[in-house]
């Protein structure tokens, strides 16, 4: 099968992450120069270290500042994966910009960038995710293509991670740029490792989700036995986690339950203890990748030189940050009011030492020094996924398939730690039907605050919430899961450079 040389030139440029995101990003290419599979298919067997270097490049890109628009743009919310966490938590209403000084998140809090395709936020998310998946496409091609059967464990694990990363990119794109799951709606341009499968025009969501499911199912198999050297690598359980979320997003709750339960029952991870959930408990602070609950995360070290332009620089009072300098990120006060006083998670959110009415996460996410405006460079770690998510997703999936017994069991497994068994049973046991589903959704919002998962829950539950009073913009606004102002738009740069797209999402 033939390969378009510009596809590989483009992908190689992505892999080195030196390509600047100008107006020609993802512009359709029409060159007729060709290379054959023979030029690439044996790379992973002959020199796996070379291919693994590109794989590591993707993981590094996930924490890179200015990776999507470039240094010249200087957008301080262009920070990779964790930047998406902030935007989606704000769009669903659970994270409040309680004071606005520097205006980096004014358009998010005001829910206006989502209705203007020329705003940077749309382009940053689009560019970041397509860079991840297109580089993964290169690695899949170098592994032998879509149907490759690796001959060594090393090659198998590289292909498994590459497929999982491509699925990650497409899953986030589909969740963010489609208002609600509709398999027939055309939503995204489509790229695989085979340019003959490329569609510059948008393809139906069913085609995108079919590839996500295929990639993750394959990745789970390929990564069986993979003992990753660091937690920022995707292993089998992370691929299972992405697969569970994909099934749930599609409304396939029987399979979402099966996969969630397999993660919970694996014994590979254990839930956070009560002390770990909030300062001043023993081991508290969502800041250490070595936590037994963390399934996927990034170990930040001083030599990485990560400073203000980072997730910690956005959220943490105790870092050299916008949060300390005047752009407060807080839990929505209407959500906070729904946390029982005997729930330790209520202690995660407090007013800062010098101000009131902000409910900042100073006892959940914090630099261990606990000195305001202090940590720089950032050495506290990034959490991407943890095991508690799948207790909650199992509960949700069980309830939606009529298995309320399992749903309540998983809820109480979680809440027993947070408030005690007696109190948890008193809340959970009487619930049935929609009341049980609503309670699971509420617990997901409380538990996952600041971790980028509440937006997915809003959409798959087709929810409507009312924001509290502590938002700098639009306090009290109604947030509807499929409203225009909740899902971003395909960016202007893509529409300008891709004539195959003629209508917005």
TrEMBL record:
Start and end residues of each SusD-like N-terminal domain: 94-244
Keyword Cell cycle: no
Signal peptide: 1-21
InterPro entries: SusD-like_N, SusD_RagB_dom, TPR-like_helical_dom_sf
Pfam families: SusD-like_3, SusD_RagB
Record keywords, A-Z: Cell outer membrane, Membrane, Signal
Subcellular location per the Swiss-Prot or TrEMBL entry: Cell outer membrane
The keyword Signal belongs to this UniProt entry's keyword annotation: yes
Residue span, RagB/SusD domain: 355-505
Family classification: Belongs to the SusD family.
Protein name listed in UniProt: RagB/SusD family nutrient uptake outer membrane protein
Lineage of the species this protein comes from: Bacteria, Pseudomonadati, Bacteroidota, Flavobacteriia, Flavobacteriales
């Amino acid at each position: 099968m033939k390969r378009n040389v510009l596809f590989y030139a483009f992908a190689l440029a992505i892999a080195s992450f030196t390509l600047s995101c100008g107006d020609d990003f993802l512009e359709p290419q029409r060159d007729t120069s060709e290379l054959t599979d023979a030029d690439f298919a044996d790379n992973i067997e002959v020199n796996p270290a070379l291919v693994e270097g590109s794989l590591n490049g993707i993981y590094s890109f996930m924490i890179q500042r200015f990776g999507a628009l470039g240094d010249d743009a200087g957008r301080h919310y262009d920070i990779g994966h964790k930047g998406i966490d902030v935007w989606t938590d704000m769009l669903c209403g659970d994270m409040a910009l309680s004071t606005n000084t520097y205006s980096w998140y004014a358009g998010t809090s005001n829910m206006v960038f989502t209705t203007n395709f020329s705003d940077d936020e749309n382009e940053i998310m689009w560019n970041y995710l397509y860079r991840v998946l297109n580089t993964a496409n290169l690695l899949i091609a170098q592994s032998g293509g879509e149907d490759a059967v690796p001959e060594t464990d090393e090659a198998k694990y590289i292909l498994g991670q590459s497929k999982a990363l491509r699925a990650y990119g497409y899953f986030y794109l589909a969740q963010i740029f489609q208002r609600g799951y509709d398999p027939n709606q055309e939503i995204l341009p489509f790229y695989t490792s085979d340019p003959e499968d490329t569609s510059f025009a948008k393809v139906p969501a069913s085609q995108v989700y079919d590839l996500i499911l295929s990639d993750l199912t394959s990745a789970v198999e390929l990564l069986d036995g993979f003992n990753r050297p660091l937690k920022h690598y995707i292993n089998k359980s992370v691929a299972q986690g992405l697969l569970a979320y994909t099934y749930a997003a599609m409304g396939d709750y029987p399979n979402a339950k099966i996969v969630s339960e397999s993660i919970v029952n694996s014994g590979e991870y254990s839930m956070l203890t009560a002390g770990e959930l909030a300062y001043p408990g023993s081991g508290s602070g969502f800041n250490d990748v070595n936590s037994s609950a963390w399934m996927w995360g990034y170990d930040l070290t001083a030599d990485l030189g990560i400073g203000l332009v980072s997730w910690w620089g956005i959220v943490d009072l105790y870092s050299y940050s916008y949060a300390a300098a005047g752009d407060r990120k807080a839990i929505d006060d209407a959500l906070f009011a729904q946390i029982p006083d005997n729930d330790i998670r209520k202690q995660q959110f407090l007013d800062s030492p010098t101000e009131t009415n902000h409910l900042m996460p100073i006892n959940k996410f914090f630099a261990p020094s606990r000195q305001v405006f202090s940590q720089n460079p950032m050495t506290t770690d990034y959490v991407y996924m943890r095991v508690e998510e799948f207790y909650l997703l199992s509960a949700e999936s069980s309830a939606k398939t009529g298995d309320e017994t399992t749903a309540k069991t998983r809820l109480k497994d979680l809440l027993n730690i947070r408030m005690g068994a007696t109190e948890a049973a008193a809340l959970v046991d009487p619930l049935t039907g929609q009341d049980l589903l609503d309670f699971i959704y509420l617990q997901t919002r409380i538990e996952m605050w600041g971790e980028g998962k509440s937006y997915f829950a809003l959409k798959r539950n087709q929810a409507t919430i009312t924001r509290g009073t502590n938002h700098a913009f639009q306090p009290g606004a109604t947030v509807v899961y499929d409203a225009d102002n909740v899902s971003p738009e395909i960016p202007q740069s893509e529409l300008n450079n891709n004539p195959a797209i003629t209508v917005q999402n």
